[in-house]
Amino acid sequence: MKLRPLKLKPAVRTYIWGGTKLKELWGKESDTDTIAECWELSMYTDSESIVDDPAFYEYTLSKLQRNYPEFFGDKVNDYSKFPILVKLLDASADLSIQVHPDDVYAMAREGGQLGKNEVWYIADAEEGSAIYYGFNRDVTKEDVIDGVVNGTITELLNRCPVKKGDCFFVPAGTVHALQKGVTVIEVQQSSDITYRLYDYGRKDKAGNARKLHIREALDVMNLKKSELPVPAETKELSSGAKIRLLTKNGYFTSKEVKIENGEYLIYSEESFVTFTVADGSASFSTGEQIKKGETWFIPAYYMAKIIADNATLVVTII
């Protein structure tokens, strides 16, 4: 099979905080009125992305790996499980105050799943939007329990106003939440473990209170004051692309790539590369068009040249 870029079709999830932006502004399709999350690049069970290419009809990402392992490169074999998951999220309401476990806890307590380190790229933000990110001082478990019981837990957290283009690496153990009005590209470990600490007393569509996981959250949370991330410097390439590192950790590396009247080359011999279009549009040198909201899979050993007048990509490699 000849190597080429492969567009991915996401798995769609609906939650009570989802909205209509992913359908109206990002080109996503769903039978539901709202979309909370699009799992853009996913090999997670029952929520796999699909290869949107006639030559790979009804191929899930895992089927692509089984049949064409060379597309993924050798580095993926260093991991016990497929390591990453890329999402688009539309927070039309505040998300719960929550925390994720690390690998050790998840492997022991959650049936051998991975933990969850993640990075948030703020793809869009309404005026006044914010996130919660870690504690604003050192706290005790008793402080946290009191905050949950009294409904004052947010007073212990850093509330960070956000704007388009902001980035936050959220290590496992960091208590956090998206607030209403943000659209996020999230790159994370391939995990679906969330411990909900506080949910504003909301009920689901059936009228039931949403389940909390206070014991597990207390087990895994970092009780120390969180220092807010410092943005990395942007570097300009001679090709007209500007690069900003979003995160480089033990699981994946993500960067923001802005292309203004120029081009950007993607190539790796060790691993596949994936990117999601955060803004604008572009094209491959071979002619395929690339639109806002799309996520593409670039096979290992394939050199992709992306040309754009004005486009922003979130590019990830393991």
Descriptive notes:
Strand 17 and strand 18 form a beta hairpin. Strands 1, 4, 14, 15, 16, 17, 18, 19 and 20 form a 9-stranded antiparallel sheet that branches. The chain has helices at 21-24, 61-67, 103-109, 141-150, 214-220, and strands spanning 6-9, 11-13, 37-41, 50-51, 84-91, 97-99, 118-125, 130-135, 157-161, 167-170, 176-178, 182-189, 195-198, 234-236, 241-248, 253-266, 273-284, 289-290, 295-298, 304-317. The longest helix has 10 residues, at 141-150. The two termini are 23 Å apart. The protein has 2 domains: 6-220, Jelly Rolls; 234-317, Jelly Rolls. The radius of gyration is 19 Å and the shape is globular. The model has no long low-confidence stretch (mean pLDDT 96). With 318 residues, the chain is mostly beta strands.
| Number of helical stretches of at least 4 residues | 5
CATH class of the largest domain: Mainly Beta
Which residues form runs of ≥5 with pLDDT under 50?
A: none
CATH fold label of the largest domain: Jelly Rolls
What letter string, H or E per element, gives the SSE order?
EEHEEHEEHEEHEEEEEHEEEEEEE
Structural class: mainly beta
Question: Into how many domains do the coordinates divide?
Answer: 2
Helix coverage percent of residues?
A: 10-25%
Radius of gyration: 19 Å
The total count of strands amounts to: 20
Distance N terminus to C terminus?
A: 23 Å
Average residue pLDDT: 96
Indicate the proportion of strand residues. 35-45%
The dominant shape is globular
Write down the oligomeric state: single chain
Q: CATH superfamily name of the largest domain? A: Jelly Rolls
CATH structural architecture of the largest domain: Sandwich
Largest sheet: 9 strands, antiparallel
